[in-house]
Amino acid sequence: MEEFKNIFVLGIGLIGGSMARDLRRILPQATFYGIDANDDHLDEAVGLGVIDHSSRIEALSQADLVILSIPVDQANLFLPAVLDAVESQALVLDVGSTKGSVCDAVKDHPKRSQFLAAHPIAGTEFSGPSAAIEYLFQHKTMILCEVEQTREDLLDKAMQVFEALEMNIRYMNPHSHDKHIAYVSHLSHISSFMLGKTVIEKEKNEKDIFDMAGSGFASTVRLAKSNPATWTPIFKENKANVLESLTEYINNLTHFKNVLEADDFEEVYNEMHNTNHIKSILKGLS
Amino acid sequence: MEEFKNIFVLGIGLIGGSMARDLRRILPQATFYGIDANDDHLDEAVGLGVIDHSSRIEALSQADLVILSIPVDQANLFLPAVLDAVESQALVLDVGSTKGSVCDAVKDHPKRSQFLAAHPIAGTEFSGPSAAIEYLFQHKTMILCEVEQTREDLLDKAMQVFEALEMNIRYMNPHSHDKHIAYVSHLSHISSFMLGKTVIEKEKNEKDIFDMAGSGFASTVRLAKSNPATWTPIFKENKANVLESLTEYINNLTHFKNVLEADDFEEVYNEMHNTNHIKSILKGLS
Q: What ipTM is given for this predicted complex?
């Protein structure tokens, strides 16, 4: 991986910025360039030491590694042009939260073998260059899709990087990834946003309701702080799977409402009791 | 508050046990008695040093302070008998999560003035004596209801205890309390339980889905670890308010689903953007 000397990060926010911070530690001899639609973010990233220089798409021919960490609909649009622009030694790594459409976007591209589709299961509810933190990826899962389509020498280097980041690798089909991630990630965000909305709407008429909120509410509503500019494209790209999971969630809530309405407290108890084993499932996650 | 020499805790779990642990520090000369329907919990609480002795309802005539921390439907049933049993120097403090029905249950009781209805906004997703921890209540909100109905000398002593626990006091009407707490606490639990259920149901057919779960999912689903024996009575006692908040939540989720289905991504964005100011609302909560 020492061959990665010129590293370009497209989209210098939470994920791209955090990855740059870690790679600077792992590859101290490399130079880091940032490309971003937001010039203020580029200046901020240079100021914070997340990257060395701001740059432009035209300079990508110098790249040894390109990290694509922009909103997922933009990634689908830009990826073919990024592959067009790089030389044969470069690896292009996409780290967005949906994988089906981005793999489809380059499936017939002549440089498909220089592309690796990845999804690090890591993040916080914050965004922008100031949200970039070191060790965000340590001991987290990295999902890789269609690795058989990536050139072996480039995949080897990528694996060295992920090992240096101390990540746990899993291999998945991109469409299976999108189906499962709708449940364990995308749905949580909608559940949290709409919980926040419901309570805020109530609070408009009833003052000081939030003085009564405890750590339980704070935990459940935490993801409602997430960036809509990141999440709108995710819901757009993964619409069918998200709608499926959301429909099942609404059905389960409606069933709970119906049994409570009918005073069937045995069933209310069972609904919760049967879900309690989430304890053992989540062991180790925090 | 030094007059609190014999302290009886009815229900020696997360809340009652944590309160006992703190009071032992604050009132080192007092003796602590536990009463619980579960004998194993009593033995465990003695073994852990949460209480000094296990005891029985018949001994309550010796009590200077009784802390009622049992499921809320049980509290409504037992409270009149507890008041019947205590002498005139005793304060009976209820710390359950609903306040309307427990206040109603003793409104005409001849010893109503020895009762104080309270709700500490503190807790974790764990339960039983082993969940009892010190400093659970520090810097948390304590909601007090109908304080004007509690005898002044007993209220003074209670306030000294809450001050020693470093709690922030708020005064509320019990029915307003129940209405607001449905939104900021009870609804979060249902949202979390049903999220857990939705993902577990999916996982039955699709293996290893939880390998893909990150800290965001863990945070949103944390409350699904809570004890159904605590929460079923809460939903029962606060049924009307919980149903109202749950109906609004389901309506908001359904609206989100409809705009996503209609490809109205501007509205999808706005739904999230308008909820983002939960950030500033939640400052200081964690």
A: 0.91
CATH of domain A177-281: 1.10.3660.10
Which of B185, B203, B239 is opposite residue A216, by nearest beta carbon?
A: B185
Contact between B33 and B6 (Cβ < 8 Å): yes
Amino acid in the structure at residue A278: I
Sequence letter at residue B184: V
Neighbours of B211 (CB within 10 A): 14
Query: A284 vs chain B: nearest CA distance in angstroms?
Result: 10
Q: Which SS3 state, helix, strand or coil, does residue A136 take?
A: coil
Domain(s) of CATH 3.40.50.720: residues in chain B: 6-172
Amino acid at the residue B21:
R
Which residues contact residue A186 at a Cβ distance below 8 angstroms, ignoring those fewer than 6 apart? A97, A234, A235, A238, A241, A242, A245
Question: DSSP labels for A172-234?
Answer: E-HHHHHHHHIIIIIHHHHHHHHHHHHHHHHHHHSTTGGGG--HHHHHHTGGGGS-HHHHHHH
Contact B185, B192 (CB under 8 A): no
Question: Which residues of chain A form CATH 1.10.3660.10?
Answer: 177-281
Question: In this complex, do B214 and A275 lie within 8 Å of one another by their Cβ atoms?
Answer: no
Along chain A (286 residues), what's the average pLDDT of each consecutive run of 10 residues?
96 96 97 97 97 96 98 96 98 97 97 98 91 96 97 98 96 95 95 95 73 88 93 97 98 98 98 90 66
Dump pLDDT digits (tens) for B134-182. 999 999 999 999 999 999 999 999 999 999 999 999 999 999 999 999 9
* Å between B163 CA and nearest CA of chain A: 18
Residue A282, classed as helix, strand or coil, is coil
**pTM for the full predicted model:** 0.91
Residues in chain B with CB shorter than 8 Å from the CB of A200 are 275, 277-278, 281
A226: amino acid identity, one letter: S
Size of interface A-B (CB pairs under 8 A): 298
CATH 3.40.50.720 fits B6-172, yes or no: yes
As a whole number of angstroms, the distance between CA B286 and CA B272 comes to 21
Single-letter residue type at B284: G
Instruction: Please provide the DSSP assignment of chain B as one string.
Output: -TT--EEEEES-SHHHHHHHHHHHHH-TT-EEEEE-S-HHHHHHHHHTTS-SEE--GGGGGG-SEEEE-S-HHHHHHHHHHHHHHS-TT-EEEE--S--HHHHHHTTT-TTGGGEEEEEE----S--SGGG--TTTTTT-EEEEE-GGGS-HHHHHHHHHHHHHTTPEEEEE-HHHHHHHHIIIIIHHHHHHHHHHHHHHHHHHHSTTGGGG--HHHHHHTGGGGS-HHHHHHHHHHTHHHHHHHHHHHHHHHHHHHHHHHTT-HHHHHHHHHTTTTHHHHTTT--
Q: Which residue of A has its CA nearest to B168?
A: A211
How many CA atoms are closer than 13 Å to the CA of A215, on its beta-carbon side?
13
